[in-house]
Structure formats: structure tokens, C-alpha cells
């Protein structure tokens, strides 16, 4: 019987990349459906009854952990699907992974690492255990507990042309948002993400990243200096960059006395 999977990630490029990698390492696997968020993932799993679900941990609305818990609860009287978290947040998955109940792959999914995950899933599909649902639920409870007090974001998953790159947060000089995208600027490159400033504020270390405008976050370590223009507005200079970023009145107190 052909194994069937559902993929859930809010980034289309990440779904495409994972689909392509799976085609390489598990060509007989059927990708039955793709979800853009956790709620869609729950609905599609209920409709498709897949053998495996690949879930991004952080998705808008309903997280991958929340979706997985609902999926596990849905499977009363039926075999619970294998859960694989495809995530940049490895600290959340290690405990459950070591228990052998849930697998995970770090973004972007590398062929060799994904092949190891596929091998483990195939073995579990070939030899199912009687307490799989209970073990899965317990593992998800542990992960949910970790998510209640997450560490600060360490990586940014960003689009650079047609590729997805993982950018270390400490390398980011500043974030600037417009209506659709947020620009991520490092010393070497510019990238785009869909995460709005308000979500980044909640995920980043406030001691390192300061909001200076409703649409701008700067890395405090990247500040070269503060100046004023002819209208009296404060402007932040960034090390190695030509931009001067405006400080709105609401955040002028950050540079009081400068």
C-alpha cells in the first residue's frame, strides 16, 4: 500500500522544497495535500487519513504543536499518523525526538538528514506499537510545555530570490516592514520574510533588538551613531550601511541624552 503524507507550512517555498526532497529520498510517498497553517492541517488530516504528517512548528493561528495534539485526538479508533516537525527551532523537538515517538528535521530540509528520518518512519510504519497514540500525546504535552516558555528566536527563515535561507538572528542589522513583506538586512545580503514587526518583537530578545519606529527594528549592536536632521528628527546610523533609519517620537526615549 502506498504511504500517504500531508505537508503543513505557511511558506510555499518551504513546502515546495520539502516536497522535492521527499521525492528524492522517498519517491513512492504520495503527498496527498498541503496545508498553509495548523487549522488547515487538522482538516486535511481528518479528510485524507495520511500515514505521515510533516508540520512546521510555528504557523499563524494554530501552531504545529497545537495541530499535532488535535490530530492525535482525532485518531480515536484509527492508527495515529507519524508526526515529523520540520522546524528551525530544534530545542523544542529534541526531548520528544530522543523518545523515538516524534521525528524532526531542521529547516531547510537537507537530503541526508531527511533520509534518516524516512528510514525511521518506514520502520515504525512496518512495526506499529499498541500504545502509539498515548506515547504521541505524552510527547506532545512535553513539547507544548516547552513552547509555553520559548527561548528567543535564533534563526530567521527568509526568501533570497527563489531560495530559502536560514539567517542567524545575531547577523541581522535591522528589520523594516511594508504592507506585504519585512526586509531583513545583514552585512552581506538583503532578504524578505512575511512575518510582521509585531510578531518579531514578541520573538526576539528585546535587549538586542530595539523598536525605533512602528515599522523598524534595529540590532542595538549594529548602531553606529545617532544624529538629527534639519527638522529635528533622530536618525540612527548603522555600521557599514548607508541608511539612516528614522526614530519616531514614541521611541525617542531610547536615545535620550544622545
Poorly predicted regions: none
Terminal Cα separation, in Å?
Answer: 69 Å
What is the spatial order of strands in the main beta sheet?
Answer: 2-1-3-4-5
Mean pLDDT: 85
CATH class categorisation of the largest domain: Alpha Beta
Count of the domains: 2
User: What about the largest sheet?
Assistant: 5 strands, parallel
Number of strands: 15
Helix vs. strand class: alpha/beta
Mass-distribution shape: elongated
Helix content: 25-40%
Calculate Rg over CA atoms. Answer: 21 Å
Return the CATH topology of the largest domain.
Answer: Rossmann fold
What do we call the CATH homologous superfamily of the largest domain? Response regulator
Query: What's the architecture of the largest domain in CATH terms?
Result: 3-Layer(aba) Sandwich
Q: Characterize the quaternary organization of these chains.
A: single chain
Instruction: Provide a count of the helices.
Output: 7
What would your notes on this structure say?
This protein is an alpha/beta fold. It has helices spanning 12-25, 38-48, 64-74, 90-98, 111-126, 132-147, 197-203, and strands spanning 4-8, 30-35, 52-55, 82-87, 103-106, 155-160, 163-168, 172-177, 182-186, 190-193, 209-213, 216-219, 223-228, 234-238, 244-247. It has two domains: 4-147, Rossmann fold (3-Layer(aba) Sandwich), CATH 3.40.50.2300; 155-255, OB fold (Dihydrolipoamide Acetyltransferase, E2P) (Beta Barrel), CATH 2.40.50.1020. A five-stranded parallel sheet has the order 2-1-3-4-5, with helices on both faces. Strands 10-9-8-12-11 form a five-stranded antiparallel sheet, with no helix packed on it. The chain has a three-stranded antiparallel sheet with strand order 13-14-15, with no helix packed on it. Helix 3 (64-74) links the parallel strand 3 (52-55) and strand 4 (82-87). The termini are far apart. The model has no long low-confidence stretch (mean pLDDT 85).
Amino acid at each position: 500500500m502506498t504511504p500517504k503524507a500531508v505537508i503543513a507550512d505557511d511558506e510555499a517555498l518551504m513546502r515546495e522544497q520539502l516536497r522535492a526532497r521527499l521525492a528524492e529520498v522517498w519517491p513512492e510517498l504520495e503527498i496527498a495535500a498541503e496545508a498553509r497553517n495548523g487549522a488547515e492541517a487538522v482538516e486535511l488530516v481528518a479528510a485524507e487519513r495520511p500515514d505521515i504528517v510533516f508540520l512546521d512548528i510555528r504557523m499563524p493561528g494554530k501552531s504545529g504543536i497545537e495541530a499535532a495534539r488535535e490530530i492525535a485526538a482525532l485518531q480515536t479508533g484509527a492508527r495515529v499518523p507519524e508526526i515529523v516537525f520540520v522546524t528551525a527551532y530544534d530545542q523544542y523537538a529534541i526531548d520528544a525526538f530522543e523518545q523515538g515517538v516524534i521525528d524532526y528535521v531542521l529547516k531547510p530540509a537537507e537530503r541526508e538528514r531527511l533520509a534518516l528520518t524516512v528510514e525511521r518512519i518506514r520502520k515504525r510504519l512496518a512495526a506499529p506499537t499498541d500504545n502509539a497514540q498515548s506515547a504521541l500525546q505524552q510527547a506532545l504535552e512535553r513539547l507544548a510545555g516547552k513552547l509555553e516558555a520559548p527561548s528567543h528566536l535564533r534563526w530567521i527563515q527568509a526568501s533570497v530570490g527563489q531560495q530559502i535561507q536560514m539567517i542567524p538572528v545575531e547577523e541581522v542589522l535591522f528589520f523594516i516592514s511594508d504592507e506585504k513583506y519585512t526586509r531583513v538586512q545583514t552585512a552581506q545580503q538583503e532578504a524578505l520574510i512575511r512575518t510582521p514587526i509585531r510578531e518579531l518583537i514578541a520573538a526576539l530578545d528585546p535587549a538586542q533588538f530595539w523598536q525605533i519606529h512602528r515599522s523598524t527594528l534595529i540590532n542595538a549592536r549594529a548602531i553606529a551613531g545617532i544624529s538629527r536632521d534639519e527638522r529635528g528628527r533622530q536618525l540612527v546610523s548603522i555600521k557599514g550601511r548607508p541608511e539612516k533609519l528614522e526614530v519616531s517620537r514614541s521611541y525617542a526615549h531610547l536615545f535620550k541624552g544622545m
